[in-house]
Amino acid sequence: MGLPTLMSTALAINGASLIFAAAVLINGWSRAEWLVQRGTMTHQQLEILAEVSGAIDRYMDLVERSALPSDVASGKAQVASILARWSSSVTRESDMLESPHSDDEAHVEHARIARIRQLVARGEQALLTRREPLWVTRTEIDVLIQEATQDERDEVEQTTAAIARTGQQIGVLVIGIPLAALGMAGLMSLLLVRAMRRRLRALMAGAAAIGGGDLAYRFQGNARDDLGLLAVMFNRMAARLRRSRTRLEVLQYELEARVAQRTAELEQKNRQLQAIDSNRVQFFSEISHELRTPLTALRGEAEVSLRQPDDTRGQLESLRHIVALAADLENSIDDLVALARSQTRELLLVREPIELCSLLSRTTSAGCALGRPHGVDVVFVNNAARSDFRGDTQRLQQAFLTLVDNAVKHAPARSTVTTTLDASPAAGVYHVAVIDRGPGIPSTLRNRVFDDFFQGDPDQRSGMGLGLAIARRVINAHGGRIEITDAEGSTGTCVMVSLPLCEARQARA
Predict the structure, then answer these.
(1) Residue of 471, 321, 477 whose CA lies nearest to 391
(2) 361 in a domain, yes or no?
(3) What residues make up the domain containing 364?
(4) φ, ψ at 29 (rounded to 5°)
């Protein structure tokens, strides 16, 4: 036999083998589909049996509990519907099998269904007539359902075993098909490996670029296989990393800006602390002079009185000087005590209902005595319809008198210091303004005049620089605010105090 014949014979045998294997596969596939359909119908009947059992149990419970007639009728209809579905399913299964054995099994199933219908009707009648316990009927029904369920389970097992045998037969007969395709598979595998190696090298190069920091790198192509999905995931990861890096750069910039801002604030606070410390040093360097001067004067006046015991007029004059100096010394000590209390603990207030108009009138009267030696008039103008407030009378009067005294000291002779009271319900505040026509305060010093121990022009200063600091603490303790602006006109200073109207409503409550 020549080579061409051998080749033809081999081709014929291979062709016949392939045709036979294909026929076997088709037959086996048809058999498998039929078995699967039978198994599906068997499972459906098992589900129907479960529904039958549940529906009958619910119906019997409704009858036994003497439920509403509508509920009983609904339950009965549900039982009848499910039994009809069961009977229809048995008929379809028998038609599909088309064998004498299947017809016998269908007859048995229909007989069970008919018996269950009879037992349901008998159970309802027995319960109504009380002739026999309901559990007897329910037990027989359960037995019939269990028998039917067991038959269906046996069919499931038989079908499963048949499917397994068919699969084994198909597996044995199709061994030749993979052998015939082995050569082609080898060639395709070689081509596939070459393509995969090329794409894997591209993925490795892209991963190296992204790992090196080039987050703008993107893989090209739109393949939908695993490697294509991997490339898409790499692109998404790179995009997320790029966004995260951008956010981190923004956060870093904001953090650096905040650090710079906090550093500037700390430097400003340090400068303020240094200024306060400088003021304290200056205060302690001058406090001996401030306290020693009145003490020396007191001692001098007392020695003069002792040297001239018979000079009654001189002694009276010395006593008046002693009283005035003692008052100055007492005021200095009171300022120091008030400052110490405000710095060591919260300022304690004795709140009571007061009239700001009356309080400012008394302050103006005291201010007139302060301004008279300087040739300065002190007046009060009330523009508020009502001025009820709740606060510490003594401390508020001390604060306002400090403002008036400070205005008198800086006001020129034959001028007027004016105190005004206004109410602003829309803004919810009272406005108290103390206005003088003095030289004014430079804008650079307006925030510092309320600092402890701060003193302005050395040629005009008096006291220890505590009055305005204490006044601000008193106003703040009442929930108010104090600030310095230019007075209306060419010269002068306006010290504006704002107090909340809410305190006034509490005073009326």
Answers:
(1) 477
(2) yes
(3) 350-508
(4) -65, -40
Question: Cα–Cα distance between 382 and 279 in angstroms, integer?
Answer: 38
Which CATH number belongs to the domain containing residue 464 in this structure? 3.30.565.10
265: exposed, middle or buried (Cβ count in 10 Å: 0-12, 13-18, 19+):
exposed
Q: What is the pTM of this model?
A: 0.40
pLDDT at residue 479, rounded to an integer: 92
pLDDT at 377: 93
Enter the tokens of residue 81: 């519907």
Tokens of 351: 């709140």
Mean pLDDT of the chain: 74
Tell me, yes or no, whether 211 lies in a domain.
no
Domain count, the chain: 2
In a domain? residue 127: yes
Buried b (16+ CB within 10 A) or exposed e, 194-225: eeeeebeeeeeebbebbeeeebebebeeeeee
Whether 109 is covered by a domain: the verdict is yes
Q: Which of 179, 199, 215 is the last residue of a domain?
A: 179
Please tell me which residue, 102 or 387, carries the higher pLDDT value.
387
What are residue 258's phi and psi, to 5 degrees? Answer: -65, -40
Q: What is the pLDDT of residues 2-23, one digit of tens each?
A: 333 434 444 555 555 566 666 6
> Among the three residues 179, 209, 234, which one is the final residue of a domain in this structure?
179
Triad 131, 137, 143: Cα angle to 5°: 160
